[in-house]
Structure formats: structure tokens, C-alpha cells
Amino acid sequence: MIGWESGRSFVMNAPFAVDIFFSLSAYVLINSYNEKFPCVNIRQSGNFLLSRFIRLYPLYFVMLLVMICIFYGMVNGIPSYFSNNAKRDFITNCLMIQSFVASGSSSINLPSWSISLEFYLGSLVVLLALFCRPLFYAVFAFFLFIAEHYGFRVVGNNDPVFHNISAGMLRLFLSMGVMIFVADIVKWFSFRENIMEILCALGVFMMAISTICLPPPFHPVPIYLISLLFAAMGIAFMDKAVFVDKIMGNSILFMLGKISYSIYLVHFPVCMFLVYFLHIYLPSDPGNWMVHFSILMTILVSCLTYEFIEKPFILMGRRVRLLGKNR
Predict the structure, then answer these.
(1) Degrees, nearest 5: CA angle 233-237-243
(2) Using a CB cutoff of 8 Å and minimum separation of 24, what contacts does 143-149 make?
(3) What average pLDDT does range 116-138 have in this prediction?
(4) Whole-prediction pTM value?
(5) DSSP string spanning 94-163?
(6) CA 64, CA 58: separation in Å to the nearest integer?
(7) pLDDT tens profile 100-113
(8) Backbone dihedral region of 181: left (phi > 0), alpha (psi from -120 to 50 degrees) or beta?
(9) Which helix (H) or strand (E) holds 11?
């Protein structure tokens, strides 16, 4: 949000952080459900989808309503640069289908495009990988072919690439696919501890380089895949590299990680509230004191939304997920 228009943004390639989020999601979900459900069936799949919905949707919906209140309360309607069909966008956003090409919609709460894909397509990717790894890799190879043949922009989430496959859908499948591939390699082969330390540190370093330093277009597919590979490597070795784990597992980063879903969905409403309430255009000046205030306000609001919205539904989702386990 901050500094992009002035060209002084500290994070040059912020959209790539979403791809890292997709990779991390794949790693956590695959490992979690591989252990809990060694043989996946239809009932367990239904419980998985229900628990994912309970985990993702409540905060998503609350922030959608907050954005609509901000727009209609302060701007007398959703601004034209978001949509030309407010009624359609409200319905598709409520149904979480705004990120699909066929919907022709945009996300009212801008970051929520990835949550839409994470719930529908991301859940299918995980189930496909759990049900049948060979079939998953066949589909992954197909997506690799599309990406290489047609190309795409990392910042063009709704750009149609191939029929109804968008850039955002490609990014999700490639991010999750590369992560699952790397996790399988780590599982199949043994690595010495010092090698794991080096590979993890290199992966974390390259995550930072890819996100902070690479210019926004960042769409040559080979470069994108290499960045994904390093990100997946850093994630896969994180809990096996003691030194890196101590650095990344400190209390501040742990707290930020715990509320990161809230931060992701809250930061845009906070920025829009400040823009329209105080009439300060945040992206134009990253050095403005309001930028620091917006970051602090985002974290404080995120602590509240985590405690009173996320946490109760996380516990509910866990109870639903356990229904599929054998006694």
C-alpha cells in the first residue's frame, strides 16, 4: 500500500509475499493432514473443506462488511476504480468467487482475492495431493506448461491467461506445487544438519531478495519458479535448521505470525479508513508519520480481530476437523 506511487516503496515486489503465503499454506496443510488422515476419504474431505471455511470465512466476511461501511459511509458508494458493478461485486465477494475470471469481478477488500483462491482452488490442490500424488503432479505439469507457454504477470491477479485460468490461479497452483515437490524431496532424501542450515538460510535470504528487491513486473516464468524454489526450500528446512529456527522463532515474529491472517485482511480497510477519514493519501509519502500510525493501528486492530473473531472459529474448525478421524 505504501510508497508504490512515489516509487519509494521499501518492498518493491510485495505481491510475491502472497506466493510465499500459498507455499507455506501447502506445506502446513499437507503435513498436517498426511499425519491425521493416512487414507483420505469423502467424509474426511468434507470435514477438511468445512474446517477451512470456518477458519477463513468469518474474518473475511467481517472485513468485507467493514470495507462496504467505509465506502458507503465516507465515499457514498464503492469508488469507480474498484468496480463498475457494485451489486455483482458484493454478491461475488460474499461467495468468495470474485477471483475467478468468469466472475468478471474485483475484490472490495483488495487483499481478499487470494483468500478466495486459497479456499476453493487451494483446498482442491491439497485434496488432490493427498488423494493421488501422481495425478497431482500431472496437473502440476500442465500448469507449468501453461505458465511457460503463455506467461503471466505476478501483479495481474485477474488477468486471463488460458481460457478461464487467471494469473492468480496459476500463481496459487505453481506456489503450492513447487512446495509439495520440495517437501517430497526432503522426505525422500536425508540431508546433513549443516547442509539443512545452509539451504534454509539461503532460502530465507532469497525470499527477502525476491520480495524486497525484484522490480514489480517480475514475470519471466523461470525467474519466478527459481524464487518459488528457494522460498519452498527455506520453508521445508525451517524446523530442521536449529540456528534459523531460533532467529525466526523469536517472540515478536511468533506474535506477528499468529495474527498475520488478521494483518493481511485488516491492513487495507485501515488504510482506506485513514485515507477517507483524515484525507491523507498514504501511498504518496512513505516517510509520512501517518504511515507509521497506520502500521501500528493495523497491528492493534489485528490483535483484537484475532482474539475475538479468529480464535473462536479456529477452535470450532479444529473440532470439525477431528470428526473425520477414526476412534
Answers:
(1) 125
(2) 143/170, 143/173, 143/174, 143/177, 144/174, 144/177, 146/170, 147/174, 147/221, 147/224, 148/221
(3) 93
(4) 0.88
(5) HTT-TTSGGG----SSGGGHHHHHIIIIIHHHHHHHHH-HHHHHHHHHHHHHHHHHH---TT-TT-EEET
(6) 10
(7) 887 788 889 989 99
(8) alpha
(9) none
